[in-house]
Amino acid sequence: MIDKKKELFTLEQLYESGLISLQHYTEQKIDILNNREGVMSKVVLVGCDLETGGLNGYETLASGERVHGALHYPILEMAFVICDDKLNELRSLSVGIWDESFLERLSPWALKAHTESGLIDQLRNKSGEHTAVYGSNELAVRHVLGWLMHHGVAKYDRKAKTGGILFGNSIAFDVSYLDAQMPNLKDFFHYRTIDVSTIDLLRQTAWASVGLPKAEKVYAHTAMSDIKETLTELKGYTDIFRPICVTTGSNDVLMSRDNRHGWKLEELLGKVAEELAVKTKRLEESLAGDLADEAIRNNLRIRDFLLKAQSIQFSTMKSFEKLGPDRGPSNPRI
């Protein structure tokens, strides 16, 4: 039997000694980790944002040289957020890349913005919210790939339809830099991405009548701050679009073969319990006296009943597994 820990350690040694390339190291590590317990066998949404030294189109430098930004300007910072299927943040990572030669390759806007934000000083001093700051793209890619796989994100498999899918605002910009400078990392994910800025543009135009809220943003120009703002924005849109009632001739709330977009009972109970907890906290903060105490006690009792009902429903769904896998409301097991 192969000792996986020993094999991983050997790969590390081979790579560090320069005996194998990053591509070979990555392929071997993916093969090992994808056969390890704990790697997710499903689609995983991964938020991504980069801070770079310039834009990604063709530009003419002050010297007159014509360059493509995604190849010419350096990647300074990368942030990733792993989410569950409800867009709840599970893990986050910020990795920096710095070499003093980058100063000669920053666009004037980027040099000003990243100096004022403090990012350049953080990269030089290996400080801030970065887990690590590396002197090369290769080492940064190795860290990110190892982190993704360690936390259960597999390389995207088009046949099995499992693995990581990137999301972000104007995510094509970030992907263009990954494609140009970090192809192993770019190829780890599905070639399709989720561009949250598309929803924002539709909010302002074709979907204006829907009344989607405008996302509040700080524009701190740090990768982690930006991707977490994007995640909040995407969750806000998702909450608005989550259908509660579907016009099917009835006002059914629960999912069924006739109401495929309704709520699963266990999810609805959990959602109501979650919102009730928020309302109860607001009561505790804004009211006092016997009336508030009674309302809070009642809310806590109701929430307890909801969570018990959810637990019972989970038990029922577990029993249904004996009838086969869940194939969705259009093909019920019973």
Rg computed from alpha carbons, rounded to a whole number of angstroms: 24 Å
The ordered string of helix (H) and strand (E) elements is HHEEEHEEHHEHEHHEHHHH
Kindly report the average pLDDT value: 85
Shape: globular
Strand order of the largest sheet: 6-5-4-1-7-8
The CATH superfamily title of the largest domain: Ribonuclease H-like superfamily/Ribonuclease H
Total number of distinct structural domains: 3
Number of strands: 8
CATH architecture field of the largest domain: 2-Layer Sandwich
Strand content: 5-15%
The major beta sheet can be summarized as: 6 strands, mixed
Helix- and strand-based class? alpha/beta
Distance between the termini: 43 Å
Can you count the helices? Answer: 12
CATH third-tier fold name of the largest domain: Nucleotidyltransferase, domain 5
Give the % helix: 40-55%
> Which regions are unreliable across 5 or more consecutive residues at pLDDT < 50?
1-9, 244-249
Query: CATH class of the largest domain, anyone?
Result: Alpha Beta
Describe this structure in words.
This protein is α/β, with parallel strands linked by helices. It has 3 domains: 1-37, no CATH class; 42-239, 2-Layer Sandwich (Nucleotidyltransferase, domain 5); 265-323. Helix content is 46%, strand content 13%. The chain is built from 12 helices and 8 strands. It has helices at residues 4-16, 22-33, 69-72, 108-116, 119-125, 137-150, 171-181, 183-186, 196-204, 223-241, 265-286, 290-320; strands spanning 43-52, 58-60, 66-68, 75-83, 89-97, 132-134, 163-168, 194-195. The strands form 2 sheets. The chain has a 6-stranded mixed beta sheet, with helices on both faces. A two-stranded antiparallel ribbon has the order 2-3. A hairpin with a 5-residue loop joins β4 (75-83) and β5. α1 packs antiparallel against α2, α2 packs parallel to α6 and α11 packs antiparallel against α12 (290-320). The longest helix has 31 residues, at 290-320. The protein is globular and about 70 Å long. The protein starts with a helix and ends in a 14-residue tail after the last helix. The model is unreliable at 1-9 and 244-249 (pLDDT under 50).
